[in-house]
């Protein structure tokens, strides 16, 4: 019984480690968040801080992000949804 309880915990711990692995941002993404390797969660947090600081959420639809000169090279277009943003940022991270 205790072995069964420990197996999922061990499996989960491995997933957390991979999830928190520091990734190196591309030079385009580094212009927004800095060049230090960060876990994916911190990258997303820092990009959101940048978006809010620069008032880049679309005022009529807060789920959309309006790209400025620093975000346009990352997004590849002038506006993305917050769901697209995460996928597009992944292409600018290296393990």
UniProtKB/TrEMBL annotation:
Residues 18-95 form the DM2 domain. SUPFAM superfamilies: SWIB/MDM2 domain. It holds the Pfam family SWIB. This is DNA topoisomerase III.
């Amino acid at each position: 019984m205790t072995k069964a309880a420990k197996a999922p915990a061990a499996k989960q711990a491995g997933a957390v480690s991979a999830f928190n692995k520091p990734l190196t941002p591309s030079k385009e993404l580094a212009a927004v968040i800095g060049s230090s390797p960060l876990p994916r969660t911190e990258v997303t947090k820092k990009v959101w801080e940048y978006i809010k600081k620069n008032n880049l959420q679309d005022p009529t639809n807060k789920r959309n992000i309006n790209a400025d000169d620093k975000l346009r090279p990352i997004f590849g277009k002038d506006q993305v949804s917050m769901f697209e943003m995460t996928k597009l940022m992944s292409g600018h991270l290296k393990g």
